[in-house]
Design a protein that fits this description.
Elements (H helix, E strand, L loop, with lengths): L5 E6 L7 H11 L3 E6 L9 H8 L3 E2 L12 H8 L2 E7 L1 H8 L6 H8 L4 E5 L3 H4 L2 H12 L3 E2 L3 E4 L5 E5 L3 H12 L9 E6 L4 E4 L2 E3 L6 H12 L3 E6 L11 E4 L3 H11 L5 E4 L6 E3 L18 E3 L3 H8 L4 E8 L3 H11 L4 E6 L11 E2 L1 E4 L5 E3 L3 E2 H18 L4
Parallel strand pairs: 1-2, 1-4, 2-3, 4-5, 5-6, 9-12, 9-14, 12-13, 14-17, 17-18
Antiparallel strand pairs: 7-8, 10-11, 15-16, 18-20, 19-22, 20-21
Length: 402
Amino acid sequence: MFADRVVVLGVTGGIAAYKSAELVRSLKKKGADVYCVMTQAAQEFITPLTLQTLSRNPVFTEMFGKPGLWNVEHIALAEKADLLLVAPATANFIGKLSQGLADDLLTTTVMACKKPVLIAPAMNTNMYTNPIVQGNLRKLESLGYHFAAPGSGELACGAVGAGRLAGLNEIMDRAEGLLATDKPLAGTHVLVTAGPTREMLDPVRYLTNYSTGKMGYALAKKASLLGAQVTLISGPTQLRPFHGVRLIKVQTAGQMYEAVMAHYERSQVIVKSAAVADFRPKETQRDKIKKQTADLTLELERTADILAELGAKKGGRLLIGFAAETRDVLDYAKEKIVKKNLDMIVANDLKLPGAGFAHDTNVVSLLFPDGSSKKLPIMTKEEVALEIWQEVIKLLKRSDVK
């Protein structure tokens, strides 16, 4: 979403201004063309040279200074921007903007901008909770401005509470969502499962697999960017869901089953990318199993086949499955797509370099009930997710999904 897009970053005078350097770096890594506008107070906390070096563009600081690129800079910057982001945004800036005041380069640029404006407030917690500031925020939101709400914690001044700048990942998520203008999945409810499950042996041990959830979380993110309302049911992972995705956390295959059955009915598309355990211990010990001289034998029992049950009752919904195998990958996938009544299956060979668990990349083939297939080269998991959703969109156009 950021590639070749212009992001104008406004920086105001708060201690969190130092984080704007990392924000510029993150935007550049994503492919954005970044132009920075700094208030006079912002320059007390971070130098224009720092942001100029990171953005590789001139930094604009003065309303009536020598033009850097254009004669009327605030108009030209506003017209050039695909997104205008103010981070950090002080109470002073928010107050001026809410009252329609434009007395410096940043406020005049924001006033002239007709593209989305994302504001990330950062200030002392008493200032943030002040009724005047809260009223200004509500007014701006009612006028169509977007916000990355501040987090809570210990602030630079030593106070504890709301007011610290939102995390950079959250700001990037909000920015990416605002740049995503094509919404072919708008109005569609999507259910995605992700990650492993854990089947407890005793209070300290469990059976699991190597799934990290990266593929499922990428699918949830891309669906959200394409306009869908997304519910993500996830086993234990270290991942953070994309902004706006509803996350339901589970641990065991049984909990995964209950969560899926409780939420599938309102979904038009279900993507089962979780690596759910096929077996669980028949008995879970109440106390830790102690080391012993004899071998330990574990008796296992089958878990519910969630995908098969969904296939039997899916109705007009689209159901997408995954087949992660180490041999005869396409044969197993073809068998699974028929046996479980799927509309598409994503097959990947775990033995291929760059494929499978833990990697940021994947190598997959997309198979369909009519026998057709599409082999994809090695891609990032977000790129694979986009390819999957593009095929789902085609299926939705041809189906009677409601």
